[in-house]
Amino acid sequence: MGEPEGKAVSNGLPPPPFELPYPDSPDVITSNLLRLAELTPNERRRFLAKNLISHLHQFVRETYLTTQEWEEAIQFLTAVGKTCTPLRQEFILLSDVLGVSALVDAINNPPVQGGTESSVLGPFFTEDSPDLENGDSIASDGKGEYMYVEGRVLSTDGTPIPNAKIETWETDGNGFYDTQYSNREKPECRGRLHADKDGRFGYRAVVPVAYPIPGDGPVGQLLLGMGRHNMRPNHLHLMVEAPGYTKLVTAFYPEGDEWLESDAVFGVKKSLVVKLEEVNDEEEARKRGFPKGSSFKLLQRDLVLVPEAKSREVFEQNAKEAKKNAPVA
Ligand code: BEZ
Ligand code: FE
Q1: pTM, rounded to two decimals
Q2: What is 100-311's CATH number, 2.60.40.10, 2.60.130.10, 1.10.357.10, 3.30.300.20?
Q3: Among residues 80, 141, 291, 300, which is most buried (max CB within 10 A)?
């Protein structure tokens, strides 16, 4: 903001076309706000504004929020904003740990009979994944314990979807994404491949490990203050796209991890917990392209996409139901 110039002017809008009582009691403050929100021209935004005001005001009244608590909340949100950089989005992390990202994902990608369920995208997807062929590895040798991932991309009626695009990424065996290394020279532990004509895909990866979400900012402090850990259970991210189908953003979570039930960002769904098979066979290891040793883990799982029209139908039906229960329509 530069130096002010000339006479101070309003944003140009007139007083509201109705009378408002003076806001000299908590109830009048809320009802005036709700009446003012009626002026919002866009119908959806009007609905969102009224419900936001209604819930926010109710929170302040019900908790009898003190001035000090309000100041602390403002300081916290200011710190969250100041932590954001082009490479770090602390507000999304806040949304993640408060379960808002998982909730938005759950609402927008409701389970559809037979379809693979969604999971949170997270901040570590990048556009610069290398293009791979089936059978290739997303990880350089030495980045972790060997794992082979294979399955088919199918439609909910069981038909294979040829040529679906699969983006997949994970941390290395130390629990870090490539983007977390300041000396990153090229993408690591990520790749882009396509299912074959029968919907089949397969690639080499490393066994996922549990890792902490960034804990050195205000969101980390919030978790400590709440007595909550900042761990995500071991997982492999996948994003699958094919024309006519809803884009699937998901992850597979190998069973047995101690953080599965208390994921810091609420991404785990029961149907996404997978079994890793232990393969101990030197010939098989070579056949699948692992350069050494005789053992690897095998993750076999189909990825089932939902036709766009079906996703829309389920979303709209659920949205209609939810709107009936909104406090202000
Ligand atoms: C992830 O799984 O990559 C992730 C998701 C949410 C917050 C941090 C990381
Ligand atoms: Fe992750």
Answers
A1: 0.93
A2: 2.60.130.10
A3: 80
